[in-house]
Specification:
The structure is a homodimer. The first copy, chain A, is α+β, with helices and mostly antiparallel strands. The first copy, chain A, folds into 3 domains: 260 residues, Bira Bifunctional Protein, Domain 2 (BirA Bifunctional Protein, domain 2, 2-Layer Sandwich); 116 residues, Rossmann fold, CATH 3.40.50.800; 66 residues, Translation Initiation Factor IF3 (2-Layer Sandwich), CATH 3.30.110.30. Helix content of chain A is 35%, strand content 28%. Chain A contains 14 helices and 23 strands. In chain A, strands 3-7-8-14-11-10-9 form a 7-stranded mixed sheet, with helices on both faces. A 5-stranded mixed sheet of chain A has the order 16-15-17-18-19, sandwiched between helices. Chain A has a 4-stranded mixed sheet with strand order 20-21-23-22, covered by helices on one side. Chain A is globular and about 80 Å long. Chains A and B meet through strand 2, helix 2, strand 3, strand 4 and strand 5 of A and strand 2, helix 2, strand 3, strand 4 and strand 5 of B. Strand 5 of chain A pairs antiparallel with strand 5 of chain B.
Amino acid sequence: MKNKNDAITSRDVDFAKWYTDVCKKAELMDYSSVKGFIIYRPYGYALWEMIQKELDKRFKETNHQNVYMPMLIPETLLKKEADHVKGFAPECAIVTKGGLDDLEENLIIRPTSETLFCEHYAKIVKSYRDLPKLYNQWCSVVRWEKTTRPFLRGSEFLWQEGHTVHATEEEAREETIKMLNIYKDTCKELMALPMVTGLKTDKEKFAGAEETYTIEALMHDGKVLQSGTSHYFGQGFAKAFDMKFLDKDNKEKYVYQTSWGASTRLIGAIIMVHGDDNGLVLPPRMAPIQVEIIPIKMENEEVMKKANEINELLKKNNVRSEIDFTDKTPGFKFNEAEVRGIPLRIEFGPKDLENNQIIIAKRNDYTKQIISLDSKIEEVVTNLLDQIQEEMYNKALEHLNQNIFETNNYSELKEILNTKGGFVKVPWCKELECEMKIKEDIGATSRCITNENTKDKCICCGKPSKVDVYFAKSY
Amino acid sequence: MKNKNDAITSRDVDFAKWYTDVCKKAELMDYSSVKGFIIYRPYGYALWEMIQKELDKRFKETNHQNVYMPMLIPETLLKKEADHVKGFAPECAIVTKGGLDDLEENLIIRPTSETLFCEHYAKIVKSYRDLPKLYNQWCSVVRWEKTTRPFLRGSEFLWQEGHTVHATEEEAREETIKMLNIYKDTCKELMALPMVTGLKTDKEKFAGAEETYTIEALMHDGKVLQSGTSHYFGQGFAKAFDMKFLDKDNKEKYVYQTSWGASTRLIGAIIMVHGDDNGLVLPPRMAPIQVEIIPIKMENEEVMKKANEINELLKKNNVRSEIDFTDKTPGFKFNEAEVRGIPLRIEFGPKDLENNQIIIAKRNDYTKQIISLDSKIEEVVTNLLDQIQEEMYNKALEHLNQNIFETNNYSELKEILNTKGGFVKVPWCKELECEMKIKEDIGATSRCITNENTKDKCICCGKPSKVDVYFAKSY
């Protein structure tokens, strides 16, 4: 496959440049005049809407309810839980003036909303009858970042944040894992993204959490991307915010709490896992447009009639199909459909119709097939879309599996991460010092713990290891 | 109908207190620790989701696309259009610090996003081929308000803002009216809210607009509520932001522009138009829960079996139905379903089943009917829901029609507005002075122009009138 689109840098030449080229050329985003704040253009926002719709459906099926909390948090409220404020204070955007006056107390634009949910829950949860509370909110958050990249790291990003409180530890732990699995399944089934999952180390966990579970995806360039997290808080926030309830046994107890979030980062994962040198490649279930119909010779009445006929037929069969009616050349249109990663392209001109056929081209592997007009086109198309979805997941899974390594030799760890990338499983003593040393020396961070209770030697210090952990270079 | 709920103040005793009682008791919202910023609780947010879903569907059917613009606007950008900044500057929340540092330039939390859309359009619109651009965004905005009330006026509120640019004046004017009508139709068909529509006076129009069209609803207490606006901008912003395109005739021209918005205020309108002394009354199409099934004697197996059976049957027929499984008394459950405005309540106990019947109670008029279990319950329910929707609209329309008055006598205007409220149509010279005088003297504002080219005398100064205009006291 050669690069037909000069405007997009080849992945092998400069992966970072390829990435931003795709973001811009597929018209997913644009830069605004405030550094780190991007504009989600219609096609990029449509990707987010697809993710939202599927996650929201799954949240509601599991009895979660949407709410909306204020955008601004009083400084004192953010400071109530010590670890939490330590983690977020350096990234805060601060409102000091409102309505021409200086404010009495500074207000922080939410970097995350744990503190607001805690304050609200403390107020409305009185009895075991009020539990569990399973709330979620869709919003944008602001975290002041020095280096930013579209979808991957921005000073503002769109996300959902779930916040739940429970009567028992067991139920809260169950919720943490349940939501992790919803993320993992949605990534697989909607986005064709295989994930490595596990527990974060103490250093990498969320500010204020007892435990953080993560889903991590492997990008085409061998670096990994944290794509969603689910936190078990125990009673830490509950004690800081006095979130108590009267239990069935008539005793006052603190609630157990979780939170979990996924963001527009997932769009970055889709681009970097599936994309190729000609642009975006979208998994069919995720694609806002699944089929682009490109009639050759639009002035031909028969051609346009057939294009409309096929478009209507596909729509009736719940295929997201459209005709490119613009006055560009067919070659230009093919190219555009490729840049935008549309899974299937249907093309035909007067000669094809004479031969009673149309051509269907697959975006993911560039194969084309000639389809007789006597066949059931809607079935051919829906089967092909299913097939592409599966092929894309399998290809991504193969790439992931080929890039999961294991070693207990430090120089081999360094060698793998500096040449191939991927995930490397190593034995570790659980000491921060060793984790930090690997970060400073190799530029890799621990991604997640994959195996408890190992009996080896720590890859770094040689003392007895406690767990196996994945190290990787990451976004 | 007597007030069964002591926790809710009667409308006739104190309408303002009734309103906040309903907001709180129906668990639509709660106050946060920042003044003017409310928490949208699950039931309140579910109302917003119903409105969102319907409007979003209609926007997409008319070829609008969703985007997302940054939350923060550089101060210089907001100042580019003179009228616009004058209108919004006094209400701005200002970010002066980010990531521990003082910012070089202050950033404003969007009070509305015209300036951001203009900057983006100036960048991406080059040719007539790029037009029209029909964008919309769902987000929250911040306007620092001194006096705030849940859903009606808040320092932060949820809304959608549409922003479009067109090649011709005609097309932009058409868009302005098209969106006004989408608001009006959605209010009628979804929310059972009749609206008075028309053009705002220069004093009341949007900061930077050439013309503002409005939909205005009459509340139960005789005050009116602006419920959505659609603005025609002409080329004002286009010139300030240099939004030019190369037209078919190869000439550079400025675009014509519109914007339009509707917000969570609509929830306030639903409460104040339809609600009664026992709480919320929801139009069925708008109700997150349409039928509450309340089994009497939950320990009875036959009763619970029937409850589940009816619930499943209704759900299968696309009725949003649920069973109240909580361990409260039936009386308490009836009361709760009333406060929450659930259109239909189905109740039955062992004795009803012996008599082969259930009871269905309508929320809007408190009538009850006995339904044989041999009848098609799903049909009875869907027919009743349709009937309630119609009854509620007709009742609101009747109230509106009974409270539209007309006079050309100043003391009568004052008398009507100070006793009955409602809309009063009066002849007006179009001078700001007269408009201001009525505001200061009676506390009423012009709501919209209803008739151009009248030949009467201005109700205020006696000079020849130019238009008829509605005056009203408003929220």
